Amino acid sequence: MSSTNVIVENTGESFACPSDTIILDAGLAAGLHMPHNCRGGGCGTCKALVVEGAVDHGWVMSFAITDEEKEQGYCLTCQSKPLSSTLRLRTVEPMRSRRAGEDAILPMELKAEIVAAESVAPSIRRLVLALPRGTRFRFRPGMNLEFFAPDLGESRPYSIADAPDADGLAPDGQLSFFITRHPHGRCSTWVHSLSVGDTVSIRGPYGEFGLPDAGDRPVLALAGGSGLSPVLSVIGKELAEGRKRRIELLFSVRDRRELFALDALARLARRHDNFSYRVTLTRDDAAPPPWLRGRIPLLLTREARDLSEYVVLVAGSPAFVDDCVAAAVASNAASDRIVTDSFLPRAASAMSPSG
């Protein structure tokens, strides 16, 4: 099997990529912090310019990378494989080198046992996975794991709701998830059928959602539905480390039946004076105070927030993320201090949603 030497111009780092291996997978396996999100050719976060060499583009969505962009030399590293002995890339999104003393985050393939499974809202199920004893599973806040659905021949990424412990490991060897069931989602329907004692195959961690290096700027987190999971992970870690920057959360669901994890939010607010949260309901006009009503973009517009000094975190469905980003920019948020996690379907399932 031939191997390609891949050089990332942004940082000067390099790694070996076998000819039959996805470029992003090889880079992540080598411990590089390569930009990515959906890993399914649907979001464009991993887009890179091929400065030298050639790639097989694989299967991608046209809205993530156009034919014109391919002709200009761009590719999606989450779908492309190398076709030359040397490949020199320049990622479009920022590429972060490993900091001194920072351990590499390497994806693992594991089987985990479900030790808790409960419906916490009509469309939300909470799962807790116990990793095999002795496994040193390292992850950064905001990352996700892929669940493999055995009868569907496909996988789906779900965000970890926990913050890593002080050593960057899964707390007590367990990981929790809040997973939305989509009406026609085959994968999410399967996940919602899982029970305590079942074993699931997982792979990861993946993802680059998290707080950028922006000093002690205040943080505004915007979460829609199960988009609360990666936000909980990120702000939980930030607060546990004793940082004193102000953190505000706006959490949006359709109605009071869809609320979940309010106990976790209340605990954080009681423990940390610099954290506060508000909940807004988009389809519950009869909700009394203290519930807010309306979509988050409208609330930001109504409140005339000036976000010029803020770091903004946004996680949820693609439409939710797009609208919140537009509202944040209109409120003077700097684009390089807006970090998003958009829950997109995997490209392989684009014709039959996996959810």
Structure write-up:
This protein is α/β, with parallel strands linked by helices and 355 residues long. It contains seven helices and 19 strands. The protein has helices spanning 23-29, 67-71, 186-192, 228-240, 262-271, 296-303, 318-330; strands at residues 3-8, 14-18, 47-52, 55-56, 74-76, 81-82, 86-91, 108-121, 124-130, 144-149, 154-159, 174-180, 199-206, 219-224, 247-253, 275-281, 292-293, 311-316, 338-342. It has a six-stranded antiparallel beta sheet with strand order 11-10-13-8-9-12. α6 (296-303) runs parallel beside α7 (318-330). It is globular and about 65 Å long. The two termini are 35 Å apart.
> From the helix content, strand content and strand pairing, which structural class follows?
alpha/beta
Report the end-to-end length measured between terminal Cα atoms: 35 Å
Spans where pLDDT lies below 50 across 5 or more residues: 346-355
The total of helices stands at: 7
